[in-house]
Amino acid sequence: MMNFSKKLGGLFLLMAFATASVFGQGVPDQQEAPSDDELKQFIGVLQHIQLIDQLSQQQMVMAIQEEEMEVQRFVELMQAQQDPNQEVETTPEEKEKYDKVAGMIEQIQVDAQEEMESHIAESGLTIMRYQEISLQIQTDEALQQRFQELIQQL
Q1: What is the DSSP letter of 33?
Q2: Is the CB of residue 34 less than 8 Å from the CB of residue 42?
Q3: Rounded Cα distance, 133 and 95, in Å
Q4: Of 43, 63, 50, 56, nearest in space to 130 by CA
Q5: Backbone phi, then psi, for 142, in 5-degree steps?
Q6: How far is CA 136 from CA 8, 23, 38, 106, 146, in A?
């Protein structure tokens, strides 16, 4: 069980890239502080997004395992591909498996991103407002406290 958690931890980095592309771009300067109702709405969306993220991570692990690769090895190859200074030896068969899995993971990320964006829109928030609230929570201690209190109430 602990090994599976470590695998998911490594894949969290993969998913972080996907969610960053949705939620990390073009975050505007801080705007109006959210009301409690808007924070509750944000919390509901955030919880659903976390669920989508968890399911996507599981799908990524399964995709890697279906190609009979170790998650740790896949992450190692991915990091080597992103860092030109890092060299990793690989066989043509392993490279083929990696490429296939990378394509599958990219599609999982695209699907998850679309589902996250859709859920935000369905909630009544815009992606821009979701980003604003997220940034405000990260930078405003008083808002962080309100956020935590509302989470405990829900």
Answers
A1: P
A2: yes
A3: 42
A4: 43
A5: -65, -40
A6: 28, 13, 13, 30, 12
- What is the structure's pLDDT at 18? 40
Give pTM, 2 decimals: 0.74
Task: Please tell me what DSSP assigns to residue 25.
Answer: S
Q: How far apart are CA 21 and CA 108, in angstroms?
A: 14
Tens digit of pLDDT at every position of the chain (154 positions): 444 444 444 444 344 434 444 455 544 555 788 999 999 999 999 999 999 999 999 999 999 999 999 999 999 999 998 888 888 899 999 999 999 999 999 999 999 999 999 999 999 999 999 999 999 999 999 999 999 999 998 7
Amino acid at 24: G
Contacts 24+ apart (CB under 8 A), 91-97: 94/69, 97/67, 97/68, 97/69
**Token match 């709405």: residue?**
41
Q: How far apart are CA 94 and CA 46, in angstroms?
A: 37
| Axis crossing angle, helix 127-139 with helix 92-123, rounded to the nearest 10 | 100
Query: Which DSSP helix (H) or strand (E) runs through 30?
Result: none
Cβ–Cβ under 8 Å, residues 69 and 101: yes
Residues in contact with 9: Cβ distance below 8 Å, sequence separation at least 6, in sequence order: none
